[in-house]
Write a structure and sequence with these properties.
The chain is built from 17 helices and five strands. It comes from viral metagenome.
């Protein structure tokens, strides 16, 4: 049974999720798409995608599967096509028996789509144990004639060499500002969201190269239904803590006004933000602000990362906000 969903009621992240190579073209390197098309024609899709979080590894995998079965979509119901795809959850450590039983049974049976292989997909393969990776490798050795195996990872150091040697390794480059701007402009044009140029530049700069985060911001703007999104509104909507407050905080630090800077950061804390919230948002602010020179950013970021690690691994206490602020003032105003 198929369910019809009104596309106008979909979330933007679902509506604009690329589903084939054509939709990916404005967002990625065309060389990768050309290689993937060649591999599909060769019927050889044992691939390991390597890339940072949010680089689009899962999107590539979904597009490959859709392209591979594109000729069958008019002949077979979608439910039948989905029966030929096995997604393994890397967050749930399945254990060696899972690969010996469920995966083995899936791989042994032929595809229900004439002339096509099945797919086994394992996202974040670097999160599973070495023993499970060896079992996955054994499946590749035994069933590649019947099944395509596609995996992804962030850290190849945690993927065993014998498994890497069985797969075609493809490195996914991080999206550039041009790619992200293309995505933003495309969605704004279709959804009739009007954003100033300065606000667009700000949104792209704080989305951490993540299309999902970028589209999430646009979802908020669409719900607001404002005639025009300017930099002030974008700053309020796209950040948990207003960058205007951080502007004031940073100005006091640059002016060597320690007491006033500490008072501002405690005012933020009193509003209910945790120490980690404040530091994470300030880290985002430091990367984009024009108040600080690149030299000062180079000085501030290491100490900021140090405090974030301390709060994450050891303890979190509001007194550290004052110590952190004092450390910033000392760093900025200590002669080199």
């Amino acid at each position: 049974m198929s369910i019809n969903i009104d596309i106008n009621k979909q979330l933007l992240i679902q509506k604009y999720q690329p589903k084939n190579f054509e939709q990916l073209e404005c967002e990625t390197d065309m060389d990768i798409i050309d290689i993937l098309k060649t591999l599909i024609n060769m019927n050889n899709l044992n691939i390991l995608f390597i890339g940072d979080v949010g680089s689009g590894k899962t999107t590539y995998i979904n597009c490959i599967i859709n392209e591979y079965y594109s000729t069958a979509q008019n002949k077979y119901p979608s439910d039948l096509i989905q029966e030929n795809i096995l997604h393994i959850n890397s967050l749930k450590e399945q254990g060696i028996n899972y690969y010996r039983n469920e995966v083995k049974i899936f791989c042994q049976t032929c595809s229900s789509i004439h002339g096509k292989k099945k797919f086994v997909v394992l996202d974040d393969i670097d999160l599973i144990s070495e023993q499970s990776q060896q079992a996955f490798r054994n499946c590749i050795d035994k069933y590649s004639h019947n099944v395509h195996f596609i995996a992804s990872c962030c850290n190849t150091q945690k993927v065993i060499e014998s498994l890497q040697s069985r797969l075609i390794i493809m490195k996914i480059k991080p999206l550039t500002h041009i790619n992200l701007t293309n995505i933003l402009d495309k969605i704004c044009s279709i959804e009739k969201i009007h954003i100033t140029i300065v606000a667009k530049q700000f949104i792209v700069s704080i989305c951490n190269n993540s299309p999902k985060l970028l589209i999430g911001y646009l979802e908020k703007f669409k719900l607001l239904n404002e005639e025009n999104i300017d930099i002030d509104l974008a700053s309020k909507i796209c950040t948990n803590i207003s960058f205007t407050i951080f502007d004031e905080y940073t100005s006091y630090i640059l002016d060597n006004k320690l007491a006033q800077a500490i008072q501002i950061v405690y005012n933020i804390y009193d509003k209910g933000y945790s120490v980690m919230d404040i530091l994470d948002n300030y880290f985002l602010y430091v990367k984009t602000t024009s108040l600080l020179t690149e030299e000062k950013k180079y000085i501030i970021i290491p100490i900021l990362c140090k405090y974030i690690i301390i709060f994450h691994n050891i303890h979190e206490d509001e007194i550290e906000l004052a110590l952190f602020t004092n450390a910033l003032v000392s760093l900025i105003h200590t002669p080199v």
